[in-house]
Write a structure and sequence with these properties.
The structure is a homodimer. Chain A is of the alpha+beta class and about 230 residues long. Chain A is about 25% helix and about 35% strand. The first copy, chain A, has two domains: about 15-60, Arc Repressor Mutant, subunit A; about 70-215, Chorismate lyase-like (Chorismate lyase). The structure holds a DNA duplex (19 and 19 nucleotides).
Amino acid sequence: MLLERPFRPDERLPTEAELSRDLGLSRQTVRKAFSDLVSEGLVYRVPGRGTFAVQGGQDGRYLRAFGPVDDILALTNDSDLEVLQPLARTIDIEAAGRMRQATDEVYAGLFRREHTAGPFMVTRICVPLDLGHGLAEHDSFAKPGVRSPATMIEHLERDMGISVAGALQSITAESATPELCKYLECALDSPVLRIDRLFFDVTGRFVELTINHFNPSRYTYRVEVRRRQTA
Amino acid sequence: MLLERPFRPDERLPTEAELSRDLGLSRQTVRKAFSDLVSEGLVYRVPGRGTFAVQGGQDGRYLRAFGPVDDILALTNDSDLEVLQPLARTIDIEAAGRMRQATDEVYAGLFRREHTAGPFMVTRICVPLDLGHGLAEHDSFAKPGVRSPATMIEHLERDMGISVAGALQSITAESATPELCKYLECALDSPVLRIDRLFFDVTGRFVELTINHFNPSRYTYRVEVRRRQTA
DNA sequence: CAGTGGTCTAGACCACATT
DNA sequence: ATGTGGTCTAGACCACTGA
């Protein structure tokens, strides 16, 4: 209510001091309002720089859940990533489109995650060209057969200076293709869980697309969803 | 850090005034700390009464996501619930156990949700005995064949005075059984999406268990997950 | 250097619960 | 009447950013 939309993506919003002065409210009240906007994912704030509008397109068809993105990758704990097809520059119109890229090219590769109990997930990972350049040199993503506890998100955050803010997930069920059977050690046409994740950073830019297939006998996706508590 | 665990479920915690005095902090600082605990789902607060510990058992294996529970039921929009098997008192050891009931009995029924495009979901709904008594009289749940835009959550909240706080979800893929094929209009052994939801109220008590099977060609589960922003 | 957001203190008034 | 959490004001200091 406080701020009149619309703001263009990445547009800088008025500062706390300005709003406090112009609206005749205390700074703490303005801060509370901004804090709520951040919680709703409408703006992001950078200490020393200001407050900015998030890129739009969150078309409301999605449930908005708030939680540690790190935990989405909870499967990462105690699991290794194995390179099946190294990350390489590829033409992938669909992936490029879903990440809203201007080109048809992305960096893409095929990977597998395994537990002690065996492989439970095959993932195709796609990243935009500019981010892929730096990543394609890591053995963890580029060397066929290499196993490591790597996570693409970690590399994006640590080495590329990106702050991943969240992901859009689409979850469905599919039949196992011959390729999936081979990698997941399941029967042909048996049901597999498919989860697509489109990651975005704090500015709303899409930074990674993963298409994940899970062997349901070795993995169940568990999520706790909580009603937004305004307390 | 502020408060030393453990607190028993529903145990009353010190008030803001007490902590502020005893710890030598301002009340606003204590409030901020409580606010964070609420966000993490560790306590709940009731105006005029106090602050209470949430029932334990959240064993940490779950991703904690924060979002409007109402939206979990987003599928509820523009969809009707059809009674396949009315809500009735039944012995269901597994359901009773998952809801941590003392007995082996629950109220359970089978329902179906349909779009204009046709049925897309079959759901088995289980509620504890004490809650079921009041619900089994609603036509929306008790009369075979009845279709209505009902939601069990709505009834729990509006008529039973329960505040649903969230749900534990387990998501996996299964093969369609003959019964599911009939109801979901899909092929035998085709993949279906299964989502189990265990709902709890603000005190941490489990109030409903639903076992949902989706026809993946008519429904995809979409969720936006965001990293918890402490801003 | 001035401006930004992040944190903290201190005090006020309110609606609501309990006694 | 008392005590609870919810909200607001007013002012302070800090770390960090950018010019």
